[in-house]
Design goal:
By secondary structure, the protein is mainly alpha-helical. The chain folds into two domains: 182 residues, Tetracycline Repressor, domain 2, CATH 1.10.357.140; 125 residues, no CATH class. The chain has 14 helices and no strands. Helix 3 runs antiparallel to helix 6. The chain is globular, with a radius of gyration of 21 Å. The termini are far apart.
């Protein structure tokens, strides 16, 4: 009887530790890796002109790429939390994170980060391999994921997060790399305007995140993270205004100039522009009126009007691409 109780307690403790580890891996943030699907969403088969997302084998390859990015991203979150563990303990929200609160052992987090990278990186290089074409056919997707890990997990975690403006550009680079990787894994071209839209949108999210951190920490921002002392609300608001306008213009130009999009009898993708503008304005509304923006994933999965508009945009894009064939 005593042995049975001990076994139950051991299993309960193990389950609790695994739950904390999963929480530290930030599964809700995996939604950011949806950028990997950007290229296949707008690409067409060069042979028959059908949208690539209608081809199950190619969609499956990108889905595997998405999973590999989720694994790599979780490893980077663990690394980030290990590096910032003391600073997070002084943060009003981050102090409840598994590592900062002491509910998760740093040793276990290190082991988990290493294991995730040992699975994700070799998996990325193997995904590049196509039977019958040679092992060294192409390693571009593997290189893209490795670059993502080095930039976000090493350069950003240890150095670039402390350099004003470059910290935000580094965050944006992570989103662009996701989109590029999604194109490389299928060896398809991605339009420069689409990359520009991704980069500008990522800059917008990075600036919104910094603004939310500055408001949350108020006068103690510089004490928690030195880089926050280099920013001010007026400066961030002006940057956000510039990036907002640039993002809308870039997306509009993308809908009218991208070769992979239907342009006859007119650039029909233009009808999605109002939806994109609404999504951006809704994000700004939630950021300025409700203090959101610190975690884009939280905002995206909780706000019903935002979710509905995002779903409408996705449905319109897929319908236009499918019917235009």
């Amino acid at each position: 009887m005593a042995h049975s109780l001990e076994l139950k307690e051991t299993r309960a403790r193990g389950a609790a530790v695994l739950a904390e580890l999963l929480r530290a891996m930030r599964p809700k943030e995996w939604i950011k890796n949806i950028f990997v699907f950007a290229a296949i969403a707008f690409a067409r088969d060069s042979a028959n002109g059908t949208p690539l997302w209608q081809e199950l084998d190619k969609l499956l390859i990108v889905a595997v790429a998405f999973v590999l990015f989720c694994m790599a991203a979780s490893a980077i979150y663990l690394i980030n939390d290990l590096v910032d563990i003391e600073k997070d303990r002084a943060h009003p929200k981050k102090k409840s994170r598994p590592l900062a609160s002491g509910r998760l052992s740093p040793a276990l987090a290190r082991v988990a980060a290493v294991l995730l990278l040992l699975l994700a990186l070799p998996g990325a290089f193997l995904l590049d391999y196509m039977p019958g074409q040679g092992l060294l056919r192409d390693i571009d997707f593997g290189v893209a994921l490795l670059s993502y890990v080095l930039i976000q997990g090493v350069l950003y975690s240890y150095y670039l997060k402390n350099i004003v403006i470059l910290d935000i550009f580094t965050i944006a680079a992570g989103f662009v790399l996701r989109a590029v990787a999604g194109a490389l894994v299928l060896d398809i071209q991605i339009t420069y305007w689409l990359l520009m839209c991704m980069g500008l949108l990522a800059l917008f999210l990075g600036l919104a995140k910094r603004r939310a951190e500055l408001i949350l920490l108020e006068h103690g921002a510089g004490e928690h993270r030195r880089i926050l002392a280099e920013y001010s609300l007026p400066m961030l608001d002006q940057m956000i205004s510039i990036i907002t306008a640039a993002t809308i213009i870039a997306y509009t130009l993308f809908t009218t100039t991208a070769e992979t999009l239907p342009r006859h009898p007119f650039p029909i993708m233009l009808i999605t522009v109002p939806v994109v503008i609404y999504l951006i304005f809704r994000y700004l509304y939630l950021m300025y009126k409700h203090g959101e923006g610190g975690s884009p994933a939280d905002l995206i999965i909780k706000d019903v009007p935002f979710i509905a508009a995002g779903a409408l945009w996705g449905a319109l894009v897929l319908a236009i691409l499918a019917l235009a064939h």
